Amino acid sequence: MSDRFNLSALALRHQSIVLFLIIVLGLSGTVSFIGLGQQEDPDFTIKTMVVRTFWPGATAREVEQLVTDRLEKGIQEIPYFDFISSYSKAGVSTLLVNVADATPPDQVGESWYQVRKKVADIRHTLPPAVLGPFFNDEFGDTFGTIYAFSADGFTFAELEDYVEDVRKDLLRVPDVRKAEIIGAQDEKIYVEFSYAKLARLGLDPQAILATLQRQNAMRPAGSIDGATDKVYLRVTGGYTTAEAVAETTIDGGGGRLLRLGDIATVRRGTIDPKEFTMRFNGAPVIGLAISMVQGGSVLQLGKNLKAEMTRIKAALPVGIEVAQVSDQPAVVDRSIGEFVTALGEALAIVLLVSFLSLGARTGLVVALSVPLVLAVTFIVMSMLGINLHRISLGALIIALGLLVDDAIIVVEMMMVKMEAGIDRMNAAISAYRSTAFPMLTGTLVTAAGFLPVGFAKSSVAEYTGAIFTVVVVALLLSWLVAVIFTPYLGYHLLPTPKAAGHSHPDPYSRPFYRRFRGFVATCLRWRWTVIGLTAVAFAVSLWGFQFVRQQFFPSSDRLELVIDLRLPEGSSFAATEAAVTVMEEILAGRPEVDHYASYAGGGTPRFYLALNMDLPELNFGQIVVMTKGVAARDRLFRDLRVLFDEDPRFIPLRARVLTLFNGPPVGFPVQFRVIGDDPARLRAVAFKVRTIMEGNAHLRDVQFDWDEFSKVVRIELDHDQARRLGLSVESLSQVLNTLLSGVAVTQYREDDKLIDVVVRAVAADRAHLDRLDEIMIGTPGGRAVPLGQIAHLVYTQEPGVIWRRNRQTALTVKADIADESQPPDVTFQVDPLLDPLRAELPPGWRIEIGGTVEASAKSQAAINKVMPAMMLVMLTVLMLQLGSIQRMIIVVLTAPLGMIGVTTFLLLFDLPFGFVATLGVIALAGMIMRNSVILVDQIEQDITRGIPAFEAITGATTRRLRPIVLTGAAAMLAMIPLSRSIFWGPMATAIMGGLAAATILTVTFLPALYAAWFRIREVQPES
């Protein structure tokens, strides 16, 4: 090989430049590390859009057939479409539009634009009274910082004004993207009257509505064009106060003029009944949620917000208090701190291995090479916009155990050459000739093992994609540092061998190496026994893998608990609020609780990207509890589960407590969807599914996503009688809606606010269902008749909500895990028991698996699509290096043997095998082949030099022993800090086990396989 392309020789000829680069790259890397943004988890795209449509007065079935179905049909045609999950309720249609997991993140916005276009095209086919559709294509916005504002001595409306001012101030803080107010109660001006009193006065409620609308109408009054000016005319008289509404004059007929305040109560208040509230530690508050710009630094945002809020708090009047509900910067600071500590521990372990195994000065060369690789890696991360977070820091720790390999190989080879009497310069040059390209091949093969992570098209791959980028960058940089900077450092720092070239011309003639050479020779002589034992161990590991617990993503180590309270469909907001209040009283007495925020009528804003969001529903409440530690969180979690099982106050509702999870949101971990066209039969099948699931001891809270009916009073109008009185279905509906629910007839304008003026009956007339038939209905003729005289009231029920999936009715049976079992394991226990049910289903009906198994299958499918490309890259690189299909096959056959250690370690430590561990095992194949290819290449070099094949195998294996063991030990021990992590632990343990087994097999099985493959026999010395 010509030394013109010998990078080590080039570096040693230009040592001043190399020293300059070391200093510059070290300093630049330090600056880059300090400047990297910090966040808890990497960003990933929530590929869901919410489309809501309102059709007041329609039943759930009518909404489903005339609104939901038509919208679904049009939306299904958008690019990258995956599925639509929808639910229809009385008067409301909600669609959750999902694009395919493989949709490129930059194309998601285009898909949402196409949804809007498709809906606009079919909007004219919807019923005329429909309101909307309304779109939410920012469903994935995360509000990591949430403040709660409470007031003593101020009305809620006054508090909202102050919060709005704070919101405007915070929007000017750097890195703040959005600031949204939560739990504010809209103000209304209520005009409430007794329908009996109106009937006595002979007043038609519709006439009152018309008068209010005319009085407050805003209409142009024209303008006058003068010679130089244009003068506009303004007619005054619009409402400016609530008192002005009360002074409105009503025509009472017969020349009577009545003051509205004399025949009705006019008052200003907040929305009643309420629809959504937020409370903090049991007290009503208004929340302010802050989201960060894409790619910003959470910690820097936290500092900026803290400084601005300190100023704002000082300026707020006495009586207004501010508390912090969610503090993402504090969470990130703790999380990043733990990972940086783990990174430091891993670095210390790698350096300690180097010093102990190589000696002080030799280890110092490796010790200086590793931080240099990290420094340049930080520079590249900064250039690529990769922040410090759970994934990138974990990837750095994984890379640490790998990037030390090249430096150890080069230093070890230099020392061997120097011990053989070669001077420093030629030792470095010779080391490059011997190891540079086999190392590069090993590096590329290892990097190829991470290709499925980097190029898979899914949300999970997007979440974990930094593993590929960081590890591959670090590996490639480690090779460059090993062939350029490590020889320079070795030239100056390596010790001079004591008897170089004299007493020990062959450094591998020492007793230890002689014994090891004899051991390898024994493996070659008993090659088929070694191969057979390895094959048996591999088969046993595959069989034993079935006993390894399976999971998708592990739970998070965050301290929050989330409590869901779901009341029966059709429950009132008051009932939901009462249930939330009961839960608050329980939490208030618990020592594990630091603080809690509760929401009635909906759920919390997305304060954590992986949170499974719940849309606003009157029958739903949620409480986010911040505990005082992991132990406190787990203790409270167990106690609440017992409470929900035993306390009679929670039996009528579905109460659920859960910890937060890593990875994309899934919802209930175990789910089975029953899909068909007949709702009645669908329920019957779903009840059988539920019975089977309830029979599994590992499941709890088995429930449906819908199967409840809402209470309905059907007003069957006597059409003949109604026509004689001049009434119609439309006019009667308008009157009843006005009296019972209230109608906004106009808007009172106050500064930048528009306040509805709502006309309705007094509370006494609205609250009594048993007096419904006594409601007096005014007629066009001036008469008033009770409702019971013109209609028959039928008390019945109707479906409260109807769920669909891709235009088919779908009823999901879902459950939580009751113990330490993993959701995939339990799902696969239940699934075979459903096969008899599946066999009885009509054509087109099906029972599908959902939950974590479905999400994991999608992610695994995305990984599998990239596997052929990974194999092609690996094989191509190996072929280019080895130049032989047979030798390439030998190297490839070592790749799966890591499963022996993977299964052993996961079972030994009772750890689950999840998606992240899957990525580690795939990459493990590349790590194993890295050492294999270098060993095979060394054998080939020795044979080419004329050494007998048997001796070449034993000699090459002996010379490669120390670097193989050292690199394997460094990689395994570097995983120890990572093994403590809930998220990374299974992956780190799997890699440690795989590398432990592979290290042994590389120096036993691989030589035996090579000898067997090429039929190499030991040459007996002549007597």
Q: Can you put this structure into words, describing what you see?
A:
The protein is α+β, with helices and mostly antiparallel strands and 1023 residues long. Helix content is 52%, strand content 19%. The protein has 36 helices and 30 strands. Strands 1, 2, 3, 4, 20, 21, 28, 29 and 30 form a 9-stranded antiparallel β-sheet that branches. Strand 8 and strand 9 (230-232) form a beta hairpin. Helix 14 packs across helix 32 (915-944) and helix 19 crosses helix 36 (1005-1013). The radius of gyration is 37 Å and the shape is elongated. The model is unreliable at 500-504 (pLDDT under 50).
Q: Give the biggest sheet.
A: 9 strands, antiparallel
Q: Ranges with pLDDT <50 over ≥5 residues?
A: 500-504
Q: Quick check: average pLDDT?
A: 85
- Sheet-strand content, in percent, reads 15-25%
Total E-strand runs: 30
Rg from C-alpha positions?
Answer: 37 Å
Number of helices: 36
Q: Report how far apart the termini are.
A: 40 Å
The dominant shape is elongated
The percent range for helix content is: 40-55%
| Helical/strand content category | alpha+beta
